[in-house]
Amino acid sequence: MRIVRDLPALRAATETMRRAGERVALVPTMGALHAGHLALVEAARREADRVITSIFVNPLQFGPNEDFSKYPRTEEADLAALEAAGCDIAWLPTVEVMYPPGAATVIEVAGPTEGFEGAARPGHFRGVATVCCKLFSQTEADVAVFGEKDWQQLQVIRRMVADLDLPLDILGHPIVRDADGLALSSRNRYLSPAERAKAAMLPEAMREAANAMLHGAAIESALDAARDGLNAAGFDVNYLALVEPETLRPTDALPARMIAAAKLGPVRLLDNMPVG
Ligand code: AMP
After folding, report:
1. pTM reported for the whole predicted model
2. Which site in 18, 188, 244, 276 is 20 to 30 Å from 256, CA atoms measured?
């Protein structure tokens, strides 16, 4: 596996692949890699001849009071895991490489950014869209793989790629969960043992609400019951909603996607699942 930290070296490496006619897949990450990220790398390997995984904690997608400086950074372990997973290039730009002095261009996606994570984290999707557009351009990938863990992000990326006619395919990968159902996340390490034990109540409550809806319960009362149960158990539910899968517009028609964000101790947990 090549470890690349500057743009000329990345261009040279991808040029060789392109000349050989190889299909290139990109897996964008912020590092602190876990089995969810590695499943994306494996999916990328099945999709393409060569896999580039980027590790970049993107300052542009963090708000001023968010955890940019405290976001976990585990480069050595990440590189070992990527090598073992069969990644060909680890792309690790610095902030200066990604945003040289004078950088003044951002990508603003409307539509699916407008509620939920977009409302809770102003500017977040501007940062995500900008860095992903740059990563697509830097790597000239033929396909990029994203986790359904960040459902709204996946829809924002699909919207941007369609709107800007970007020449790559976007592949979504199902959520990888721990044995108790909690979606894997780099931030789960900040849960105390007691909080970690409780955290699986989020997907459980969502699954119960989904089942109730499928058995004819009114959408709002099923969502209310899930919210109330979680809040009573010590979660602080930010949103728990049923939305159209692609537009993220609230809906009460099935099939749909249930999406949720809830704070538990220091961690904001995200989850989502199909309903119907
Ligand atoms: P992150 O490093 O958290 O920004 O995530 C990088 C990519 O990994 C994104 O496409 C995420 O959606 C995806 N990802 C993170 N956690 C999971 C998970 N548990 N299952 C599947 N994909 C995931």
Report:
1. 0.98
2. 188
